[in-house]
Amino acid sequence: MFDLLVAGATLPDGRTGMDVAVSGGRIAAIAPRIEGEAAERVEAAGRLLSPPFVDPHFHMDATLSLGLPRLNRSGTLLEGIALWGELKPLLTVEAMVERGLRYCDLAVSQGLLSIRSHVDVSDPTLRTAEAMIELRERVRPYLDLQLVAFPQDGYYRSPGAVALLARSLDMGLDVVGGIPHFERTMTEGAASVEALCRIAAERGLPVDLHCDESDDPLSRHVETLAAETVRHGLQGRVVGSHLTSMHSMDNYYASKLIALIGEAGLHVVANPLINITLQGRHDTYPKRRGMTRVPELMAAGVNVAFGHDCVMDPWYALGSGDMLEVAHMAVHVAPMTSREGLRAAFDAVTVNGARAIGLAGYGLAVGAPASFVLLQAADPIEAIRLKARRLLVVRDGKVLARAEPQTSRLSIPGREGVVDPSSYVPHAAG
């Protein structure tokens, strides 16, 4: 007797007609036509069964705060940072936890079950750290929340930030963060990278830096990050987030930099929705898109993942917690519209994100935790095209969310019937 049996699913690797059986919170079997009774049987009918979505870059302390205390009129990164500075004195632990819980509800409904959030630790009260630690514990039964100690106002630029980062790590934040391009000088930015990597090595923690989130092609702190990663033996434990300056670099230097990133085993997280919104704001025409060189990094073997970054906060007025929306934007702006590129974009919001933040036991395999999402789509490419509806969300064998398939009933004379958007995949596309 199985606890749950999902029958007739398509898996991301292309296998079709597969049954997935769950027992004791783990995947007990994956095979065609599994025999046996189950407490619940779900007919997938050829739809895609995927590991849960992963968001490797988010700001949970700011989420859902849009309009507090005012709106970002220019839409720029710097006004967003200034606006966040105005909001910080008004923040309470209770309000941040409540907004975080509401966002996590939305995330779970979208099949998003793992999030790495950067936590601003520039305020001496460290209310943000306190709130996010409480939130992490409250959502632990149904969502993995990793917390980055992020000196938003600069590790050296902001008075007291060095001590505040240490205090926040002592409180229990999980990852060492930073923002070297926001320091006063390139020299201080490079020094902050060295210091933050040293702290991570001493504490045995991962590193995740906002790095070169700029249109300035001379913002090259990721070069220092790659070197310090090797020097401190942190390979595989370091993420360079954003890297938007690479969009504006000359091709010769970028080719050198991509090789260094690969050599250091850095993970890269691009944030398509935010990168193309906040970058290029000083341009008239042509306007730069601003996102880092995703296809080139992937071609060099670098693990590239996509993050949502913001949802309805001082930097971004939109967002829905939908990682397929993130992938959908990425394939347009990269561009990555080949069949191979589209499949790679799906990996960037699932398996690549899991690798970037070091998730253990992630994926569809016998013996792994029974955590997965059933999508109203035939395959990963269709899932991105449709931003497919999540029909079933399961974590450790427990159903967390359900939804009915999206359909419309027509009343057009001679064309009556039900339209299912997921039935429109061209057969020739495979």
TrEMBL record:
The keyword Metal-binding applies. CDD domains: Bact_CD. One of its GO terms (biological process) is cytosine catabolic process. Pfam families: Amidohydro_3. Residues 42-400 form the Amidohydrolase domain. SUPFAM superfamilies: Composite domain of metallo-dependent hydrolases (SSF51338), Metallo-dependent hydrolases (SSF51556). Keywords: Hydrolase, Metal-binding. GO terms for molecular function: cytosine deaminase activity; isoguanine deaminase activity; metal ion binding. InterPro entries: Amidohydro_3 (IPR013108), Metal-dep_hydrolase_composite (IPR011059), Metal_Hydrolase (IPR032466), Metallo-hydrolase_Enzymes (IPR052349). It comes from the Bacteria. PANTHER family: CYTOSINE DEAMINASE (PTHR32027:SF0). This is Cytosine deaminase. It comes from Aureimonas jatrophae.
